[in-house]
Design goal:
Layout: H1 16-25, H2 31-46, H3 52-56, H4 59-65, H5 77-86, H6 101-104, H7 106-116, E1 147-156, H8 169-184, E2 192-196, H9 202-210, H10 220-224, E3 236-240, E4 245-249, E5 255-262, H11 266-281, E6 288-289, E7 293-294, E8 307-313, H12 315-318, H13 321-330, E9 333-336, E10 349-354, H14 362-382
Antiparallel strand pairs: 1-5, 1-8, 2-3, 3-4, 4-5, 6-7, 8-10, 9-10
Helix pairs in contact: 2-5
Bound molecules: adenosine-5'-diphosphate (ADP) and citrulline.
Length: 386
């Protein structure tokens, strides 16, 4: 039900006539799937879910999109909304099963994108990539009073492949080998080793997760979105020798490129990530859309796909939820727990990052996050102890 990879066009030389015939043939949505979608949609509509999916999937849009499919991969509305239908506690609840979904299901994606990325309207366009220089940003916490560690990541999809729900086992292996071939050519500080999850023992896996280097297994939001099929095939992690440059393969996105280290030197961490992205970009073809920027599985990651975060202790502000809410809205920051999304904060350590990733250049995204964290630290210093 989730996909129809058998009907996927495999050869670029297919004539437009064959493609048109295929598109026509692939348009029907199975009637059992339709019924299931209608029931689940009603349950979401009747729920108290605060997800962006519930807010923007009106009955009118649902009825318009429920019989649509994407031309090349035959993805349905169900592929896009299954995570939010299963998990009413989603923040967003929407994923793109393939790059075409952003256009076919634009009536749903566009308002969610506009809402999440703070006013990126459907007539807006992501600016050209402009990384700039991280050295412009001073260390956010030179005395080490607040920031435990800093991390900057971005996601990339390879051209010619759909996203998780439409990938076949063969695709996962192919993606992994193409990405590994590129990783093998990394030099200098980026030199390191790749390990596939299929060959990694559970103990080493858990150690890497506890050290915040590796993704968790079994995220229910991703699982419901169809992102865990054939697990652990094709999934793995690349670590440079210093363990401050990491690449995740085939987790949520085809590639996640990550730079991280202790302390608050955001500029240095950012420059390291940029160097890695550029080195990989010389060897791999990334999928970038003129309007939406780098295409990712989750619409929250479109555009630059950058999430720059600090693990930070702000004890006074954390005791003042009203003030914290006001500040994070003002600075457009998102607060997560210590072990990532949907986790709790341990020992008062929160993960605070830029919320929006779309509508600004890479440099502007880092600047926004830098200004925001600086603002929070200043507010913490001024706050009275209770
Ligand atoms: P992402 O969407 O960026 O991959 P997640 O919320 O899933 O983020 O977190 C992935 C991992 O990265 C988690 O282990 C999380 O604790 C870790 N992480 C995020 N930010 C930092 C940071 N500033 N320092 C150390 N680890 C971090
Ligand atoms: C959710 O909807 O909560 C998950 N699918 C994760 C969404 C991405 N997270 C975010 O807010 N950046």
């Amino acid at each position: 039900m989730l996909l129809n990879s058998k009907t996927r066009p495999k050869f670029k030389f297919l004539t437009s006539w064959i493609l048109a015939t295929f598109r026509h043939a692939s348009k029907k949505v199975d009637k059992n799937l339709l019924k299931q979608m209608e029931d689940d949609f009603q349950k979401l509509a009747d729920s108290k879910s605060k997800s962006l999916l519930r807010r923007h999937l009106t009955k009118e849009i649902f009825d318009k999109l429920k019989t649509q499919t994407t031309p090349s991969y035959n993805s349905t509305l169900m592929h896009c909304i299954s995570s939010g239908l299963c998990n009413h506690d989603s923040g967003v609840g929407l994923y793109a099963p393939d790059p075409e979904a952003y256009k076919v299901f634009a009536d749903l994606f566009d308002p969610v994108i506009e809402d999440y990325h703070k006013c990126f309207r459907k007539t807006d366009k992501q600016p050209e990539t402009a990384f700039g220089k991280g050295k412009d940003f001073e260390n956010l916490d030179p005395d080490g009073n607040f920031i435990v560690s800093t991390r900057v990541r971005c996601g990339r999809a390879l051209k010619g492949f759909p996203f998780n729900p439409c990938l076949t086992e063969e695709d996962y292996n192919k993606l992994q080998s193409e990405i590994c071939a590129a990783l093998k050519n990394l030099k200098g500080e980026y030199k390191g080793c790749y390990e596939s999850l299929s060959t990694m023992d559970k103990c080493s896996q858990q150690k890497l997760i506890d050290d915040h280097l590796l993704f968790k297994e079994g995220d229910r939001f991703l699982e419901a979105a169809g992102a865990s099929r054939f697990w652990p095939i094709g999934r793995g992690i690349y670590l440079n020798d210093a363990k401050n440059f990491v690449v995740w393969v085939n987790e949520e996105d085809h590639i996640r490129i990550i730079s991280m280290e202790k302390g608050g030197d955001l500029g240095k961490v950012y420059d390291r990530m940029v160097g890695g992205v550029e080195a990989l970009g010389k060897q791999l073809q990334f999928n970038r859309d003129e309007r939406l920027g780098f295409l990712t599985f989750c619409p929250t990651n479109l555009g630059t796909s950058i999430r720059a975060s600090v693990h930070i202790k702000l004890p006074k502000l954390m005791n003042d939820p009203e003030e914290l809410k006001e500040l994070s809205e003002r600075y457009r920051l998102q607060i997560r727990g210590t072990s990532g999304e949907h986790s709790e904060a341990k020992d008062g350590v929160h993960d605070i990052s830029n919320q929006r990733r779309l509508g600004l250049t890479e440099y502007e995204i880092i600047k926004e996050m830098h200004t925001g964290i600086k603002g929070l630290i200043e507010a913490e210093k001024k706050a009275k102890s209770c």
